[in-house]
Design goal:
It is a single chain. This protein has about 210 residues and is an alpha+beta fold. The chain has one domain (about 1-190): Phage tail protein-like (STM4215-like, 2-Layer Sandwich), CATH 3.30.2000.10. Helices cover about 15% and strands about 40% of the residues. It has four helices and seven strands; from the N terminus they run H-E-E-H-E-E-H-E-E-H-E. It has helices spanning about 1-15, 55-60, 115-125, 165, and strands at about 20-35, 40-50, 75-90, 90-105, 135, 140-150, 175-190. The chain has a seven-stranded mixed β-sheet with strand order 2-1-3-4-7-6-5. The longest helix has 12 residues, at about 1-15. It is globular and about 60 Å long. The two termini are about 35 Å apart. The relative contact order is 0.20.
Amino acid sequence: MVIEVGNIIKGYLQPLTFIDKLAGVVKVITKTDLDENNKPVVKKFPVACDVNFNECQTTGKYKDLIPNSSLGCIVFLEDTGARFTGMRGHKQVWKSGYKLIGWVNNSKLGFEDCSVTGQIIATIINQFPIVPFNSGMYQSSSIQVNGQEPKSGQNPFSKYSFDENQSQYLMYPFDYFSLLIDVSFEIDKRCLTTFVKGEEITCSTGSS
Protein backbone atom coordinates (compact mmCIF):
# COMPACT_ATOMS: atom_id res chain seq x y z
CA MET A 1 0.00 0.00 0.00
CA VAL A 2 2.75 2.47 0.96
CA ILE A 3 4.68 1.66 -2.22
CA GLU A 4 1.61 1.98 -4.47
CA VAL A 5 0.68 5.36 -3.00
CA GLY A 6 4.32 6.43 -3.36
CA ASN A 7 4.07 5.60 -7.05
CA ILE A 8 1.16 8.05 -7.29
CA ILE A 9 3.49 10.80 -6.04
CA LYS A 10 6.14 9.65 -8.51
CA GLY A 11 3.62 9.79 -11.34
CA TYR A 12 2.90 13.47 -10.73
CA LEU A 13 6.65 14.24 -10.87
CA GLN A 14 7.45 12.31 -14.06
CA PRO A 15 6.72 15.29 -16.39
CA LEU A 16 9.55 17.27 -14.74
CA THR A 17 12.33 16.81 -17.27
CA PHE A 18 15.05 18.32 -15.09
CA ILE A 19 14.86 15.23 -12.83
CA ASP A 20 17.37 12.75 -14.28
CA LYS A 21 16.71 9.91 -11.83
CA LEU A 22 13.23 9.57 -10.31
CA ALA A 23 12.19 6.71 -8.04
CA GLY A 24 9.19 5.96 -5.88
CA VAL A 25 9.68 4.42 -2.45
CA VAL A 26 13.19 3.05 -2.05
CA LYS A 27 14.37 0.03 -0.14
CA VAL A 28 17.78 -0.04 1.54
CA ILE A 29 19.98 -2.83 0.27
CA THR A 30 23.14 -4.00 2.01
CA LYS A 31 26.25 -4.95 0.06
CA THR A 32 29.51 -6.27 1.49
CA ASP A 33 32.78 -5.25 -0.19
CA LEU A 34 36.41 -5.75 0.79
CA ASP A 35 38.53 -2.76 1.81
CA GLU A 36 42.22 -2.20 1.00
CA ASN A 37 43.12 -4.53 3.87
CA ASN A 38 40.86 -7.26 2.50
CA LYS A 39 38.42 -6.82 5.37
CA PRO A 40 34.66 -6.89 4.76
CA VAL A 41 32.91 -3.51 4.72
CA VAL A 42 29.12 -3.34 4.82
CA LYS A 43 27.58 -0.62 2.60
CA LYS A 44 23.98 0.54 2.26
CA PHE A 45 22.34 2.00 -0.84
CA PRO A 46 18.86 3.37 -1.68
CA VAL A 47 17.33 1.25 -4.44
CA ALA A 48 13.99 1.69 -6.20
CA CYS A 49 11.49 -1.01 -5.21
CA ASP A 50 10.95 -2.01 -8.85
CA VAL A 51 14.63 -2.97 -9.27
CA ASN A 52 14.99 -6.73 -8.95
CA PHE A 53 17.84 -8.85 -7.61
CA ASN A 54 19.25 -9.76 -11.02
CA GLU A 55 19.39 -6.11 -12.11
CA CYS A 56 21.36 -5.27 -8.97
CA GLN A 57 23.77 -8.13 -9.56
CA THR A 58 24.28 -7.90 -13.30
CA THR A 59 23.83 -4.21 -14.15
CA GLY A 60 24.76 -2.45 -10.91
CA LYS A 61 21.38 -0.67 -10.72
CA TYR A 62 21.84 -0.40 -6.95
CA LYS A 63 24.03 2.62 -7.79
CA ASP A 64 21.36 4.42 -9.83
CA LEU A 65 20.43 6.84 -7.04
CA ILE A 66 23.99 7.66 -5.97
CA PRO A 67 24.94 11.30 -6.73
CA ASN A 68 27.45 11.83 -9.51
CA SER A 69 28.55 14.80 -11.59
CA SER A 70 26.88 13.59 -14.80
CA LEU A 71 23.40 14.08 -13.28
CA GLY A 72 21.48 17.28 -12.62
CA CYS A 73 18.83 16.07 -10.19
CA ILE A 74 17.88 12.89 -8.31
CA VAL A 75 14.55 12.47 -6.48
CA PHE A 76 13.25 9.49 -4.51
CA LEU A 77 10.92 8.70 -1.61
CA GLU A 78 11.49 7.16 1.80
CA ASP A 79 8.59 5.52 3.65
CA THR A 80 7.86 6.97 7.10
CA GLY A 81 4.85 4.74 7.80
CA ALA A 82 1.11 4.44 7.19
CA ARG A 83 -1.55 5.10 9.82
CA PHE A 84 -5.15 3.87 9.94
CA THR A 85 -7.25 6.83 11.08
CA GLY A 86 -10.79 5.42 11.10
CA MET A 87 -13.80 4.27 9.07
CA ARG A 88 -16.23 6.22 6.89
CA GLY A 89 -19.04 3.79 6.12
CA HIS A 90 -17.46 0.92 4.16
CA LYS A 91 -14.29 2.94 3.61
CA GLN A 92 -11.07 2.69 5.56
CA VAL A 93 -9.34 6.05 6.01
CA TRP A 94 -5.52 6.06 5.92
CA LYS A 95 -2.67 8.54 6.04
CA SER A 96 0.70 7.55 4.57
CA GLY A 97 3.92 9.47 5.27
CA TYR A 98 7.01 10.02 3.12
CA LYS A 99 10.25 11.91 2.91
CA LEU A 100 10.89 13.21 -0.57
CA ILE A 101 14.69 13.32 -0.92
CA GLY A 102 16.27 15.45 -3.63
CA TRP A 103 19.87 15.95 -4.77
CA VAL A 104 20.81 18.82 -7.08
CA ASN A 105 23.83 19.60 -9.27
CA ASN A 106 23.56 23.39 -9.70
CA SER A 107 26.12 23.57 -12.52
CA LYS A 108 24.50 20.78 -14.52
CA LEU A 109 21.18 22.61 -14.29
CA GLY A 110 22.80 25.80 -15.58
CA PHE A 111 22.87 27.85 -12.36
CA GLU A 112 25.74 29.48 -10.47
CA ASP A 113 23.64 30.68 -7.53
CA CYS A 114 24.23 29.37 -4.02
CA SER A 115 21.29 27.03 -4.54
CA VAL A 116 18.29 26.56 -6.79
CA THR A 117 16.53 24.14 -4.46
CA GLY A 118 13.90 26.75 -3.55
CA GLN A 119 12.74 26.96 -7.16
CA ILE A 120 12.88 23.19 -7.54
CA ILE A 121 10.84 22.61 -4.37
CA ALA A 122 8.21 25.11 -5.50
CA THR A 123 8.03 23.38 -8.90
CA ILE A 124 7.60 19.97 -7.26
CA ILE A 125 4.85 21.21 -4.95
CA ASN A 126 3.07 22.81 -7.91
CA GLN A 127 2.85 19.39 -9.61
CA PHE A 128 0.51 18.02 -6.96
CA PRO A 129 -3.26 18.48 -7.38
CA ILE A 130 -4.94 20.95 -5.04
CA VAL A 131 -8.24 19.06 -4.93
CA PRO A 132 -8.87 15.44 -3.83
CA PHE A 133 -8.51 12.82 -6.57
CA ASN A 134 -9.05 9.10 -7.17
CA SER A 135 -6.32 6.73 -8.34
CA GLY A 136 -7.31 3.09 -8.71
CA MET A 137 -8.61 1.80 -5.37
CA TYR A 138 -7.21 4.86 -3.56
CA GLN A 139 -10.12 7.29 -3.33
CA SER A 140 -10.53 10.87 -2.07
CA SER A 141 -6.74 11.13 -2.07
CA SER A 142 -4.86 14.31 -1.24
CA ILE A 143 -1.13 15.08 -1.17
CA GLN A 144 0.01 17.47 1.55
CA VAL A 145 3.56 18.87 1.72
CA ASN A 146 4.07 19.60 5.43
CA GLY A 147 7.45 21.29 5.25
CA GLN A 148 11.15 21.10 4.47
CA GLU A 149 13.64 19.56 6.89
CA PRO A 150 16.36 22.01 8.00
CA LYS A 151 19.84 21.81 6.51
CA SER A 152 21.18 22.07 10.07
CA GLY A 153 19.70 18.64 10.80
CA GLN A 154 20.87 15.25 9.65
CA ASN A 155 21.91 14.99 6.03
CA PRO A 156 19.30 12.72 4.40
CA PHE A 157 22.09 10.86 2.59
CA SER A 158 24.08 10.11 5.78
CA LYS A 159 22.29 6.79 6.30
CA TYR A 160 23.72 5.53 3.01
CA SER A 161 27.28 4.46 2.23
CA PHE A 162 29.12 6.69 -0.23
CA ASP A 163 32.79 6.51 -1.05
CA GLU A 164 34.90 9.62 -0.44
CA ASN A 165 34.81 10.55 -4.13
CA GLN A 166 31.00 10.39 -4.00
CA SER A 167 30.67 12.33 -0.73
CA GLN A 168 32.11 15.39 -2.47
CA TYR A 169 28.81 15.59 -4.35
CA LEU A 170 27.08 16.68 -1.14
CA MET A 171 29.03 19.97 -1.03
CA TYR A 172 28.73 23.12 -3.19
CA PRO A 173 28.06 23.34 -6.13
CA PHE A 174 25.90 20.37 -5.19
CA ASP A 175 22.92 20.57 -2.85
CA TYR A 176 20.13 18.49 -1.36
CA PHE A 177 16.71 18.85 0.25
CA SER A 178 14.17 16.78 2.13
CA LEU A 179 10.40 17.37 2.11
CA LEU A 180 7.89 15.85 4.54
CA ILE A 181 4.77 14.64 2.73
CA ASP A 182 1.52 13.04 3.87
CA VAL A 183 -0.99 11.38 1.56
CA SER A 184 -4.52 10.90 2.90
CA PHE A 185 -6.76 8.39 1.14
CA GLU A 186 -9.70 6.05 1.49
CA ILE A 187 -10.04 2.39 0.52
CA ASP A 188 -13.48 0.82 0.07
CA LYS A 189 -13.42 -2.58 1.80
CA ARG A 190 -15.82 -3.91 -0.84
CA CYS A 191 -13.19 -3.27 -3.52
CA LEU A 192 -10.42 -5.26 -1.81
CA THR A 193 -9.44 -8.65 -3.22
CA THR A 194 -8.17 -11.49 -1.05
CA PHE A 195 -4.48 -12.30 -1.44
CA VAL A 196 -3.84 -15.60 -3.23
CA LYS A 197 -0.44 -17.27 -3.08
CA GLY A 198 1.28 -17.62 -6.47
CA GLU A 199 3.96 -19.93 -7.82
CA GLU A 200 7.34 -19.79 -6.13
CA ILE A 201 9.95 -17.65 -7.92
CA THR A 202 13.48 -18.97 -7.83
CA CYS A 203 16.01 -16.11 -7.70
CA SER A 204 19.19 -16.34 -9.72
CA THR A 205 22.41 -15.43 -7.94
CA GLY A 206 23.92 -14.15 -11.18
CA SER A 207 26.75 -16.69 -10.94
CA SER A 208 27.70 -18.91 -13.84
